[in-house]
Amino acid sequence: MRLDDYDKSKPFDATVMSTVRITPDEADAEIREIVLEINRHDFDYKPGQSIGVLVPGPHEFGHEHHFRLYTVADTHSRSIEGRPWITIAVRRCAYIDEFSGERYKGIASNFLCDRKAGDHIEITGPYGYAFEVPQDKNANLILIGAGTGIAPFRAFVKHIYQDVGNWRGKVRLFYGAHTGLELVYMNEHRDDFTQYYDEDTFQAFKALSPRPHWADPIAWDYCLEKRSEEIVELLGNPATYVYVAGLEATRDQLDEVFGDFMGSSERWQRRKAELVAGGRWTELLY
């Protein structure tokens, strides 16, 4: 769906309860974890869903609001009074205009990163159900996320082990970033995934750029190739599901790597089409 297609007719008021930078100060990327309290009791959401944020205008081209989606980064919780709390991870963004060469701040990300505790914002949703938990607890899960694409997997993995429980299938999380400092929820300052390392079924792996200051792409090839034998075996298992989250460029990078695993791009595209048709390959890309 295009952003314009999402229903924004029923906004909810939300209060910023906390905003914390979760990348170190020395990291190039500023990523903040923002906790919102929804000021209505009847707002319900599930892990993997997204909320919309409405940034008040006026904006260019006559838009009254600027609209962006953010994936929920934690499982369901409520305040003492029963109002829903939502956690999102937001990276402060900027982009370069390809024609003028000018640098512009991302509207929604900077708006959110500049909010303080007690501020009010308008949200909409929830939308979608990106990563559905298979009914079979023996199902294998390959989770591939880049940057803030880790947010839905943080909620997903927590939901599997804490809410669903007794998960018997293999869970393999591959997380990519340009530097170790940008590995939110998986660095020395904040590693939410350590609580699952003693689970027999869970393993997590990091993929970093070989030369981050040269803007080299994330080294998915190196990270995944080291485990290619297990990955190929899992991809051939009808009980395996693959979930991918992050920038759109991740799709092409993974297609190249998996094409090498399968012996050719054509073989991989046939296998991927089978996974997609069977509901076992899901992407949440932006």
Structure characterization notes:
With 286 residues, the chain is an alpha/beta fold. The chain folds into two domains: 3-127, Translation factors (Elongation Factor Tu (Ef-tu), domain 3, Beta Barrel), CATH 2.40.30.10; 140-285, Rossmann fold (3-Layer(aba) Sandwich), CATH 3.40.50.80. The chain has six helices and 14 strands. It has helices at 107-113, 150-164, 220-225, 228-235, 249-262, 265-277, and strands at 12-21, 31-38, 50-56, 65-71, 77-78, 84-91, 94-96, 103-105, 120-127, 140-146, 171-177, 202-208, 240-246, 281-285. β5 and β6 (84-91) form a beta hairpin. The longest helix has 15 residues, at 150-164.
Second CATH tier, the architecture of the largest domain: 3-Layer(aba) Sandwich
CATH class of the largest domain: Alpha Beta
- What's the order of the H and E elements? EEEEEEEEHEEHEEHHEHHE
CATH-level-4 superfamily name of the largest domain:
Nucleotide-binding domain of ferredoxin-NADP reductase (FNR) module
Choose one word for the global shape.
globular
Low-confidence runs of at least 5 consecutive residues: none
SS-based structural class? alpha/beta
Q: Do you know the CATH topology of the largest domain?
A: Rossmann fold
How far apart the termini lie comes to: 11 Å
Overall average residue pLDDT: 85
How many E-type strands? 14
Please summarize the sheet with the most strands: 7 strands, antiparallel
Strand content: 25-35%
Number of helices: 6
Q: How many domain regions?
A: 2
